[in-house]
Amino acid sequence: MENTLKTHHRLLLTGAAGGLGTALRDRLKGNCDVLRLSDKVGLGEAQAGEEIVLADLSNAAEVDAMVAGVDTIVHMGGISVEAPFAAILQANIVGAYNLYEAARKHGVKRVVFASSNHVTGFYKQSETIHADHPARPDGFYGLSKAFGEDLARLYFDRHGIETACVRIGSSFAEPKDRRMLATWLSFDDLHRLITACLSTPVLGHSTIFGMSNNAVTWWDNSRARHVGFVAQDTSDVFREAVYARTQAPDLSDPVAIYQGGSFVKAGPF
Q1: What is the pTM of this model?
Q2: Which of 123, 141, 155, 258 is catalytic?
Q3: Kind plus residue range of the DSSP H or E element containing 143
Q4: Is 141 one of the catalytic residues?
């Protein structure tokens, strides 16, 4: 597969039943000899080159078994939308802790962590930010991903576990609305980015915005040059169609003011 580099023997993909997990399942097989898939729901039968280990991220013993024997982790698991704090706490906060503890115990030294643009959702769409800007989460979901980034930093500083915190924009087959013209990340570019994070000689603790080569962007990704990611897709080819089927934004609406879009008004607040 294009831009695929085999870097590991056994790679773990969490959240393998989710939207991005499903998109990555076949793509990541080229990055390893054995792809271990995990989620808390059924994943069907294991195909050639696959292993399936079901686990609930909030269950430390299940996560420990899930991680045992893998070389690296692509962590897509957890809740990926705004939700009540109790649910976010178990899946995204306790779950992230359980994952890094298991990685420490089993000697895993590299993780690709699915963070989110919602870590910085309360910056304005009129701004361009970089990875060193302070977090401004737009809800409990974004808050949990900010925690995950800090947790990853701790486990790098204390235990040498390298992590790419990938602040995924909007990864779908194509952009759904005008906001996504700025935030869109194609599935193939997502895979290219993960491949870069798995194969770069020195990763450290890196925060990277997950976006394709879109003309409009709110994120300066220059601090991620060391991983070697070069996006090859762009939302620009969808611009005319997106404009034709959507209305101009209400510039007094927080959804159109802030980078987090609808997340700035979502949830039980």
Answers
A1: 0.96
A2: 141
A3: helix 140-159
A4: yes
